[in-house]
Amino acid sequence: MSPQHQAFLKALSQRITTERLVTDPLRTLAYGTDASFYRLVPQIVVLARDEAEVSAVLALAHAHQVAVTFRAAGTSLSGQAVSDSVLVVIGEGWTGIEILDGGERIRLQPGVIGQHANDALRHLGRKIGPDPASIATARIGGMAANNSSGMCCGTAQNGYHTLAALRVMLRDGQVLDTSDAISVAAFRRSHAGLLHGLSALSDRIRSQPELEARVRRKYRLKNTTGYGINALIDFIDPVDMLAHLMIGSEGTLGFISSITYRTVADHAHKASCLVLFDELEDCCRAVTALKDGGAVDAVELVDRRSILAVQGKKGLPGFLYGEPAPQAAALLIETRGADAAELAARCAAIGATLAACRPAADSGFSTDAAVCETYWAVRKGLFPAVGAQRAVGTTCVIEDVAFPVELLAEGVLRLTALFDKHGYDEALIFGHALEGNLHFVFAPGFDSPAEVQRYSDFMDEVSTLVAVEFGGSLKAEHGTGRNVAPFVKLEWGDEAYAVMCEIKRLFDPEGLLNPDVIISSDAQIHLQDLKRMPAADALVDRCIECGFCEPACPSNGLSLTPRQRIVLWRRIQQLRRDGSDAALLAQLEADYQWAGLDTCAATGMCATRCPVGINTGDLVRQLRGEARHPGVASTVEAHLGAVLGTARAGLGVLKLARGVLGPDTATALNRAVHRVIPVLPVAPAATPGAASALPAAPAAPAGGSAESSVVYFSSCVNRVFAESPQGGDNLAESTFSLFAKAGLTPIYPPDCDGLCCGQPFESKGASQAAERALRRTGEALLAASDGGRIPVYLDNAPCALRLVEAQRAGQLDARLKLHDATSFMADVVAPRLHITPQLQQLAVHIPCSTSKIGSAAKLVALARRCAEEVTVPDIACCGFAGDKGFTLPELNANSLKRLAPALPAGCGTGVSCSRTCQIGLSGHSGLPYRSLEALLDDCATPSDSAR
């Protein structure tokens, strides 16, 4: 660390707790990683929580002359969110959402994930305008700083055009809140010179008609190259100019601490279709016709290579499989309507337009939400999915240009010719066709000077082609970053570029805010610090570090995310191979044990968010290796019934201790002992009492048919923990009551008290014990189900997933009809019942296993039949992870820190279908989380058919 940074750090540590000042090599690399193809490792990472801390950072940066870069989610693609100086990470503490004017406006802090903003608006039929493909991960601060747009918003609904107000802190610590008249008046007095400078620049552009016309013309296209100097001629008041200049300024002019958007309509009636053309020119002519027709809301172009890249995806029309024509391209189209009639009319109008354009095949419009989501999920994941197919060791680069839409076909053909000329045979093109906005992806290797030179030559030619020959945008929506900073003058010309340089000087005369981003004097900055992705493990080598996985990870904010685990494992493997820094390697390996391995829940939810399905948990389990004491695991598996009896007895002791000492004292004592003896589990505050013995299975009714029978598999966890907090009951009681109402008769498998799916052993690396447990359970279920004739009910979601996946892998008899509890209740039991809502408000938690098994929608649908209003907080994984809630309670606490604030006022009950999840959820929400079976039992009576 440089002396300047050391002095800065020492001073800052007087203002910000040292736990949030990161300097160790493991975490600086982890936090310094973004989705771009650049790698800079910050000397200091500041996890800032509020404006006061950001103000302190800026004041001390000025005093010590150190550069500062702001970063939110790190999904940036052009190198604007990385730094080798001070990186300020905005996340926790910046997640405020305030809905205004009945949803017409929404005020957001910069740490809010874009999708969470839309979730808050959905019930009002509104959404924010920007809709980048990364919206489920990207945060509002980054979206505003990059002027993100996306697939459906075009230019009219981007951040610039939907801005209502913002709160910004300049490099001198001064805050301007444009929604506050007092703040604006004070700013006019304190920063008159800055505002006068902006007015002068506005006059400068207006005095040159040719320059003014050029600015207006270029912003008819999507354009994020350079500063948004259209703000200087779109507004008269310099305060408005300043506010809109901040949009797309990439942290080079100030820090946006709050933004208010005007929202846009989110029509419930939507339809999508896929259309294939054998000729690219026909496809692009269709785009022009569709734009002129005005009935479409989004049109995405996918070229031939992109079609080939997605052919492994399920749910696409049959005509997209097989070998496309040499010049083939496809369009993904969406249209929306205020009601079904309007939607139908729009679909018909688009169909007529398409028919005249001679498509090779057309899926027709679908209004099925699942079908449409499949189409759009494929498009959203196209960049990472393509990147995953690159050769190991190469880097994935995505460029982002815009042509005038009438020149789209020629632009695609010219770009393709450049790929061929420079040998990028893997390159493909897709993008927002209505705006002439194309993304192209290719995979250069930056491991030799020759490869870097090839990339440089290619970029030079692309820049001339797009910016000079076609008058287009070199960066349509991904931001200038470091990637296009050397080409801003080429695109804009000397006079416009001079205006941009003056803007930077007015706001940041010392050049300390995100230097070399947007404005740079280094003509080679785009060729420096290029990211290398050395081989690490076949399980994760396809990762392009996009970060889409991070919101689903329960250890995000506690230790590392899946992306960070992969980044660090790549670095460790590289150091092991080259032997360049033994001391660094030793430190990274030591720190990685807890941050990378011990704190990973390994539930695989990262794979559900990853466009190519990378499960970082698989890598973690592999690195954890075999259990240290496999003999103990085998003994436990062989005597499971007795072990579970001991566990129930332990819960009785816990109940007694809480009664004698009081719950708080007992919990504090438990945690103190755990710190001394880590193998002793921590019992969360919501740990229930011991379950009673399984109830006797009722006799089959006289005259009953074999079709009314169901094998009931009670999981270990439900044989230990009671349904009620006090204990003394069993989940099977509620389930059997429901079965009786539905006319079903449960059957236990033989030795049901000693059976286990094997998941507890598998998670600890005790593979032999896990395999024996799985085998014994499979044999018992096959016997009880009469060779697979009778369905099997699996009462705990994680166990259900374990058994279903084992059957898919050929480890269980294929004849077994395995049903997770949610699916069986939805498909078999609920149709035989009258279900009457008994609750006003209900919170639903979807366990990881329920999501992965595909029953999430069924769980929510059942919940909606039991309550008037249902809330589903975006908690992808609660972090309890089997037994980690007992052995590493901070993981559960970290994952559920957003739960309580996400619950609506008046909500008094939650529901889930994993017993351990329910324990953590109850403890961290203050609500009792019940089983699905108990909830349904309270709301259900037999239907006539069941009787």
UniProtKB/TrEMBL annotation:
* Keyword Ribonucleoprotein among record annotations: no
* Native species: Sphaerotilus hippei
Query: Mind listing the UniProt keywords for this protein, alphabetically?
Result: FAD, Flavoprotein, Iron, Iron-sulfur, Metal-binding, Oxidoreductase, Transit peptide
- Domain FAD-binding PCMH-type: from-to ranges: 38-266
Is this entry keyworded Nucleus? no
The protein's Enzyme Commission number: 1.1.2.4
The protein in question is named: D-lactate dehydrogenase (cytochrome)
Cofactor names from the entry are: FAD
- SUPFAM superfamilies (alphabetical): alpha-helical ferredoxin, FAD-binding/transporter-associated domain-like, FAD-linked oxidases, C-terminal domain
Q: Which family does it belong to?
A: Belongs to the FAD-binding oxidoreductase/transferase type 4 family.
Q: Name one Pfam family in it.
A: FAD_binding_4
Give this protein's Gene Ontology molecular function annotations: D-lactate dehydrogenase (cytochrome) activity; D-lactate dehydrogenase (NAD+) activity; FAD binding; iron-sulfur cluster binding; metal ion binding
